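User: Structure please.
Assistant: Input sequence and predicted structure:
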Amino acid sequence: MKKFLLLISMILILSACEKKEEQPAPTPESQIQVTLPEDLSILYSYQHDNLHEECTNNNEIVCAIETIVKCALNPKLSVCDSKTMPEFLFYDDSIFAQDDVEGRPTEQSFKLLKYKPLDNHTIEIYTEGTCDHNWFGACKGNIIYVMDNSSGQWLVKDLYAVEKIH
């Protein structure tokens, strides 16, 4: 009888444990295609007084980041659409969306470093950025752009700065 109770107890304990379901690994067909320029040493530079609305680069990821940079320099550009940009940057009452904010950069540049896939439609693009003002820490140093391709085109969904460790 003791063995029977012990067996029943073990069965109850095992059945009470939750079975953890593993996420299947993405299949090759579902993995996103990321194409960065071959030459990662290119420095993309922009100046407030010399901005072109259209992206002339043939890389969609570079163009998405370029749009964010241009809108940081001049939020009044027609390409600065709050529906396709990180909310905190260009939300109507955001300090980022105000043109006369003290500390807004007039010159900004970035260089691509690498990328890291997060899921089947999201990646992080690691860049090294420079600008002539601090701009809330969003343009100088190691800037990471979170990119999303769920709509079929690359859009910057978020960005953040990471302190450079010397």
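The radius of gyration is 23 Å.
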